[in-house]
Amino acid sequence: MTKIDLKKIKELREATSAPIMECKKALKICSADMKKAKAWLKKQGLAKAAKKKGKATKEGTIYSYIHSGGKVGAMVKLTCQTDFVAKNDEFQRLIREICMQIAAMKPKNVQKLLAQEYIRDPEKKIEDLLNEAIAKFGENIKIEEFVRLEV
After folding, report:
1. Taking the CA of residue 100 as centre, how many other CA atoms within 13 Å lie in the half-sphere pointing to its CB?
2. 57: left (phi over 0), alpha (psi -120 to 50) or beta
3. Which phi and psi (to 5°) does residue 11 adopt?
4. Where in the sequence is the domain holding 116, given as residue range(s)?
5. Are 72 and 90 part of one and the same domain?
6. What is the 3 state secondary structure string of 99-140?
7. How confident is the model at residue 97 (pLDDT cuts 50, 70, 90)?
8. Most buried among 19, 65, 77, 93, by the most CB within 10 A?
């Protein structure tokens, strides 16, 4: 059995935000290969997200973002299953990132938003961000609606 270096576990956790034990498991399964471990974690996250997709989302939050200069703004309704998750700092960061995405990229509807490349990481789509959050929190999360305003 391969002994996994704590530095690699920490590095994988920082790169993926996956739980520590999942990072350790991924590195063991993938013989400490970081690239393969990231892919494995992504696949596991997608599987977890798929299981959660049908769950009702009756909690959540509304967030607004006004871009510097006050000429562009966005407001998003992001829902989840519990108020515990809705109040979480990482959930709040997620909704802020989604608002910034909307302000910058002008999507027409939720489906087009989900298919867009994430402005901070072109290798990810907004749907990937959402799936990562679903896997991390263990709850279904939905972008219910949004509005973008521009002067």
Report:
1. 11
2. beta
3. -60, -45
4. 59-150
5. yes
6. HHHHHHHCCCCHHHHHHCEECCEEEEEHHHHHHHHHHHHCCC
7. very high
8. 65
pLDDT in tens, 3-45: 778 888 888 887 777 778 888 888 888 888 888 888 887 777 7
Asked if the model's pLDDT at residue 66 lies above 60, the reply is yes
Beta-carbon contacts of residue 7 (< 8 Å; ≥ 6 apart): none
Q: Are residues 78 and 124 in the same domain?
A: yes
The strand pair at 142-150 and 72-80 is best described as antiparallel
Q: Which among 33, 37, 41, 32 has a CA at the least distance from the CA of 4?
A: 32
For residue 67, the one-letter residue type is: H
For residues 48 and 92, membership in a common domain is answered with no
Q: How far apart are CA 132 and CA 105, in angstroms?
A: 21
Q: Where does 1-137 show beta strands of DSSP type E? A: 59-66, 72-80, 117-118, 121-125
Domains of the chain: total: 2
Degrees, nearest 5: CA angle 15-75-62: 75
Q: What is the pLDDT of residue 135?
A: 81
Give the Cα separation of 131 and 48 in Å (integer): 8
